[in-house]
Write a structure and sequence with these properties.
Layout (H helix, E strand, L loop, with lengths): L8 E12 L5 E2 L2 E2 L3 E9 L3 E5 L6 H9 L6 E8 L13 E4 L3 H4 L6 H13 L3 H14 L5 H4 L9 H12 L6 E5 L7 H18 L2 E6 L2 H5 L4 E6 L2 E7 H6 L4 H9 L5 H9 L4
Parallel strand pairs: 5-9, 5-10, 7-8, 8-9
Antiparallel strand pairs: 1-4, 1-6, 2-3, 10-11
Length: 277
């Protein structure tokens, strides 16, 4: 079976630099880039984890790929899409799961309305068909009482349940690329593991490419085919997940591993072997 590097890139990034105008961080009176001269290919069908501490540029990378950078951002370099005959349609071809599910959901609309609206907007379905798709999706993300949840409001769900709804909405139009930006960091440890398992299953079932943004190298190791380690806006190490965990080349990667108290590389390598394609 081919490795991610051998497959056609879904997205190819060359020399990507992103600077936020008006940012507090500056050098010689000029704003410092949040992302600097990044080269990265994401293969169709692979699961790539981007890890690093806050301010490392990983979320800026995700927002740039999704076309969600604010107007204050200046972009240099190229983001190309060899895996598409055309540029991707954001919302349909790219699904995005944000860090805070409570902030992602409208408190005055039912869960069914919010998931169905994505299908209506991007697939052109009528309400009846869209609601049927929403019910199916809520079942796929293992939301308890998925049929009854259609009429529920966000405040009636737990944090983990809200995030499952957000994932359902993100995949409602059948995207080729799913971006999960710190989608587990607001959840407790048990729910984090459940969400990672869910993302692995959904991407395998649908053949989606996954970009998983996280500060948690252990979660990344259990999910990703490859890991890209970012620091100060640059990729300092990129490689197969097992290789990065078992034999990190960069001192910063080793520091991230050491920061996990009692973290043993052996079970992580075993878990990455279980995600191999």
């Amino acid at each position: 079976m081919s490795t991610p590097a051998a497959r056609m890139p879904l997205v190819s990034i060359r020399g990507l630099t992103v600077t936020y105008e008006g940012g507090e961080a500056a050098h010689k009176g000029r704003p410092l880039p949040a992302l600097m001269e990044t080269d990265l290919d994401i293969a169709a069908g692979e699961r790539l984890a981007v890890i690093g501490e806050s301010g490392s540029g990983k979320s800026t990378l995700a927002l740039a790929i999704a076309g969600l950078l604010p107007a204050s951002a200046t972009i240099e370099g190229k983001i190309e899409w060899p895996g598409f005959q055309r540029g991707p349609a954001h919302g349909r071809d790219i699904g995005f799961v944000f860090q805070d599910p409570a902030a992602s959901l409208d408190p005055v609309l039912t869960i069914g309305e919010q998931v169905a609206e994505v299908a209506r907007t991007h697939l052109g379905l009528g309400w009846k068909e869209a609601y049927a798709r929403a019910a199916d999706l809520l079942g796929r993300v293992r939301l308890p009482d998925s049929q009854g949840a259609l009429a529920a409001y966000p405040h009636q769900l737990s944090g983990g349940q809200k995030q499952r709804v957000c994932i359902a909405a993100a995949i409602a139009a059948g995207p080729k690329l799913l971006i999960a930006d710190e989608a587990t960091s607001a959840l407790d440890t048990i729910v984090q593991a459940e969400i990672v398992t869910l993302l692995r299953r959904l991407t395998q079932e649908d053949g989606m490419t996954l970009l998983f943004i996280s500060h948690d190298i252990a979660l990344a190791a259990g999910l990703a085919d490859r890991i890209a380690v970012f620091r100060h806006g640059r990729a300092v190490e990129i490689g197969p997940a097992a290789q990065v965990i078992e034999g990190p080349r960069h001192a910063y990667t080793r520091a991230l591993l050491d920061a996990h108290i009692g973290l043993d590389a052996a079970p992580l390598v075993a878990s990455t072997a279980g995600t191999a394609r």
